Amino acid sequence: MNVLETKSSLEVSQRAPRLEVLVVDDSPVCRKIFEQILPQDMYAVSYAATGSGAMQLFAEKSPSIVITDWVMPDFSGLELCKRIRADKTKTYTYVLLMTSNRQENGVLDAMEAGADDFLVKPFNSNEMLARIGVGRRIIELHRKLEAKSAKLEEVASTDVLTGLPNRRAIEDWANRQLRGAKRHGFPLWVVLGDLDCFKEINDTYGHEAGDTVLRTFADTLRKLTRISDMCGRLGGDEFLIVISHVSATNIEVAINRFRELFGSLSFPFAGQSVKISATFGVAGCESGKAQDFDVLVRKADEMLYEAKRAGRNCVYVAKME
Question: Rounded to whole angstroms, how far apart are CA atoms 97 and 91?
């Protein structure tokens, strides 16, 4: 492979991915024009002749750009634009509306319906291609903003030290699960876990050792937590687990599995093999009699306090009402 071929291959590999484009027009001539002017290496184009056909393709392909005629056999391009904007499940779609209508209020109607751009037919192919290029740049900007927003949301809901969800994320998730428990009648448990004598670890071996213990405890919880459940860090050495679809007779067995696995680990601090235990308090509900999340947390905290007074390294479960 020569230098030019290598450069060409590199350019192709670095080129932006193809954007999904949906062209909605019942004119074969117009559709043929788009086949000719849109580069196949930049755009993956689908075609629809009706508004209903366009909505079906929109649902299937989630196009980044929609180019639609105003007048169609079933419903108008304005109506299509409104339906696209009403769908909040999709990421942003750039909509360009075409029409042979030269009335002055055409642009205003198009923009009020949610269109991003407006072009009168017959159009100049170069102008259309340039406008689609503008749409592509706007879509790419939207995607970057969405990615940054998602990253910020992730940071805002994640504990920095352990990588587990923080209290905010736990509460949001738990409240959704509680609504599901009330609706479908499945058991749900809130578990508070606390490391025993954690302050002594920090005081004796330093905060770096304490951070190692916290991360290891978090990894243990993560390893044994099912995909359908959630574990997180509330702060300090206190952790919370939300568990569903486990009966009252089995919940203590499940939490003891966490406790025993962590208690079996050894930490090499200052030339010593150090073992650390954890204590758990559990509160929950069965058969759809779900209580508020804060109420369950308070009950679990009461059980945790009783377990600590009983000698630590154990699991206490609140009696079902």
Answer: 19
Phi, psi of 115 (to 5 degrees): -70, 150
State the Cα–Cα distance between residues 59 and 99, nearest whole angstrom.
24
Q: Is residue 278 exposed (0-12), middle (13-18) or buried (19+ Cβ within 10 Å)?
A: buried
Q: How far apart are CA 141 and CA 131, in angstroms?
A: 15
Helix (H) / strand (E) element for 302: namely helix 293-309
The pLDDT, as a whole number, for residue 105 is: 72
Grouping H, G, I as helix, E, B as strand and the rest as coil, residue 22 is: strand
**DSSP labels, 155-214:** HHTB-TTT-SB-HHHHHHHHHHHHHHHHHH---EEEEEEEETTHHHHHHHH-HHHHHHHH
pLDDT in tens, 161-214: 999 999 889 988 888 888 888 888 889 999 999 999 999 999 999 999 999 999
Taking residue 172's Cβ as centre, other Cβ atoms within 10 Å add up to 13
Place of tokens 């180019």: 67
Domains along the sequence of the chain with CATH: 3-155 (3.40.50.2300), 167-317 (3.30.70.270)
Which sequence positions are flagged as catalytic? 237
Environment class of residue 24 by beta-carbon count within 10 Å: exposed (0-12), middle (13-18) or buried (19+)? Answer: buried
268 by DSSP, 3-state: which? strand
Amino acid at 238: E
CB 53 within 8 A of CB 61: no
